[in-house]
Amino acid sequence: MSAKQEGGAIGGFIRFFSSSLVTPLLILASWLLGAIALIELPREEEPQIVVPLFDIFVSMPGASPEEVEKRVVDNGERVFWEIPGVEYVYSTAAPNGAMFIVRFRVGEDMEKSLIKLFTKVYSHLDFLPPGASLPLIKPRSIDDVPILALTFFSSEKDPLSLRRIVATVRDKINPISDISETTILGGRKRQFQVFFDPAKLAAHLLTPADLVRLIQQNNVRLPAGHLESEPKLVDVEPNALITTKEDLESLVVSVSQGKIVYLRDVAQIVDGPDQDERSLTLRFGPAAAGQPKGSIEAVTLAIAKRKGANATFLAKKILTSVNALRPSILPPDVRYVVTRNYGETAAEKSNELLEHMGIAIFGVSLLIALFLGLRAAAITVIAIPTTLAITLLTFHLFHFTINRVTLFALIFTIGILVDDPIVGVENIVRHLHLPANAGRSLLVVATEAMLEIVGPLILATLAVIAAILPMATVGGLMGPYMRPIPIGATTAMIVSMLVSLSATPWASVSLLKGSKHAGDRGEGLLLRLYRGFVTPLIYNRWLRLLFVLGVLLLLVGAVALIPLKLVRAKMLPFDNKNEFQVILNMPEGTPLQTTRSLLDRMAQVVLKIPEVTNVEVQAGTHSPYNFNGLIRHYFLREAPYQGDLQVNLTNKSERKRQSHDIAESVRPEINRIAREFEGAYVQVAEVPPGPPVLSTLVLEIYGPSAVQRREIVTQVEKLMRQSPEITDIATYEESDHPLELLNVDLVKASLNGLPGEAVAQNIVTALQGTSPGLAHAPNDPERVQILVRLPEEQRRTDQAVRNLALLSRFARLIPVKDLTSQQTGWQRHPIFHKNLMPVTYLLGDVTGQIGSPVYGILDFTPSLENIRTPQGKPLEILYTHLPDSPNDWSIKWDGEWQVTYEVFRDLGKAFAMVLVLIFILVVGWFRSFVTPWAVMLPIPLSLIGILPAHWYLGMFFTATSMIGMMAGAGIVVRNAIILVDFIEMRLEAGDPLEEAVISAGAIRLRPILLTALSVVIGSAVILFDPIFQGLALALMAGEIAATLLSQPAVPVFYYMLRKRQIAKQKQASGNLSERVQS
Prior knowledge:
Radius of gyration: 37 Å
Number of helices: 35
Helix content: 40-55%
CATH superfamily of the domain at 1-40 and 382-516: Multidrug efflux transporter AcrB transmembrane domain
Strand content: 15-25%
CATH architecture of the domain at 1-40 and 382-516: Up-down Bundle
CATH class of the domain at 1-40 and 382-516: Mainly Alpha
């Protein structure tokens, strides 16, 4: 075998790089390229997930939800559903308009998706009925999520002044490169408010619409051309712009009895803060020493970054620029706190993981030094930075970023990438100590040692790649989230193999010169113990059978932990973040003051937590949203009955409790406060460890009747509230809130020369207000709106509106109450669709020890069996797909369950692909359908370590655990491949079967133990990360169990299979000879 390979291409490759000066240059070049990639790769906390997402808004004033559904939603959905690549279309038909959310498949190109959507919409505008607006299309992406939030407060400035200062700060930092969208939340905007007096208007025969028209006509500046003058033309612009409050006050509205009537005579003009229904206050917690107490009016500046920008560098640059604005723009009394800095957390995480990577490299190097000596360890250490450098370069070429997943992929590969160099170095060292190699050239010995293992080495590397690469086929939101792991590990394995065939023999020749390489060292205690254990198993049939039975019982016992629910499955474990939110939905129609009052009570509960630094209380507005809020559309929460608490914690390095435990501790009391107000829903929203979903538990009720769907939702909600395992229950169904309908008598209105639109517009101006334009104040950092409306005290009842006088064609004033009839009722409920089917949503979360929606669903589903359809039949319960028809009554589980199902389904398919690929590789190499069963035996044996380890530590079996199990399968199989190849080499050399399996196991014991310990040490640094600890545990426990069990089990199982094969061959040979003789 060696002789044949000496003249082969691989032999020439090894000999060339073993003695070439090109080898160290290539190593240095790879290190340089890796360093450049590490510097240039953008740093972020989470990986970029490309999910083209678009919001489409269509207004249709006056239309009911049912009319919007029929005229806009049904037609629009069909248009969007025709677009290639669209995966979900969510629709809401609300009073006066519709909203669509169009989500393309994960990985679709954002720009191409946008072009496809715009092309489809604007080539099918005829789907919109008369009276509907043109669609407003808003792209959404993860880059819209602010990376930095600064919350400003002052003991002296009012909310208007504070917001103006913050707006000026925004204008100053906007020119910084890589800043994208900036948003100001809270405070008050400057506004010119025209509060008209209905009685005074009536006295001068004026209406609110007259004021709006007057202001519009007197707020203009137009280019009028130029004068044909010499020597230069002179531009002319008539100017009638409103720039000050005095300009408004001095507008002439009428002349009465020879006296000029100004706008100030019929209305109060206020230049001051707007009256929008929103509130943002800041409260400091126990962990914020030296900060003011109580509730403080605040303004938050949220800053997003451009795609691909380095969040860490950008955040530092922004903070430096803001601090440089003192005292010219930021007065001494205006202070700010950083309420979000994803750049800092990204830097902390990356620095922590880079440190862990260094620890892993040092640990693996120390291990090799203990087993093989310092020189051999130095040889292996060369391979680690070389491989990692090329892997970083690959990440750069694939446009990845430096984030927690890519860094974990690098740390994860350390344990497996050293396997090839370990095998090479160990075999070279072993050959050097063979008596037959005494006095021979070191180059020749190293080359022969590498050629001896090159075949199984390549096959084993391919086996690991076959075990890891199929993970890249995982779809859904988790696919791109985890994709750096298979891509990085595959690259690392290929580079590691090339390094072991080039750099390892070169380093061996360079570093092992002068070392003693003759003489047999004999067998140590470990090898003697191994032979003492395996030999009886080979020669004693009953001991062999007992051993096999014992291993089988261990395997069955380990697997039984899953159906016994001692090991529970979950998509990802809970993360440990520096924040969480409390989302409050009051009954529709609840005033802002009531919403804020309830939020303040919840804030007092949260502020008792010692780890809280500050709490932002938002009522009628929203906090800066994260990826979770992007998917859930928290940025649309601007109604007075909506609010949230943004709870910021001390850095996780400064507290003992994890953020999930802190959030769980306040959940019962917050839910108790919410239950005091009938119809209030509250959710404690943690930052998800992976891709976000609508809620942990989502029940989708499908059926043709909206009224009956709501009835079913009410029944299910009652059942959910009876379950101690389910909490944070909420629904998208709006509560009944009063509606006062003023029906215009069109006949009477027409006879008076008042069209219905004029009546309606005057009522809108009185209550909601109408803006006739902007006040042209160029020095103001934000636009200054002019708003005409009734004073606040007259908007509290309908009396002022009903007495509002309108001018008829006969110059006679007619009150609104004479033109309308009052009808009281309830506001119509929105209608929701998902993928063209009417649906009603019910949300919840799991609490307590369950933690996983899988078991919450399993426990709760039997309760749904008693719910009947309107036809009296049981509801169909769906888990993985939508109903076939919108006329089918059914309940579908969604939320985290859907992602969990898809992830484990895809990982299961990938694992099946792994087994098939490994089987094909092994069959092709050993040319046997029997041998692969011995080679693949360690795969199930790894479960004996993986599942009990999860049970013992009380950890969920997560998607990362599954990834660790798959990667571990490749590692243990590669060890088995090299072991079986050595057995067959001994058999080819003429050894008896019994001696061959025992000797090969003894020879391969040390490198296999080295590989196993390298994986354990390399993975140990990941063990304390809340997300990837499952991966680390699966690798460590699986490798330990598979190594301890497979070292005796693979030789024993191979011996049993081969002995049976030899017996069959002898029997067949005997039968053939008998037939020949006869």
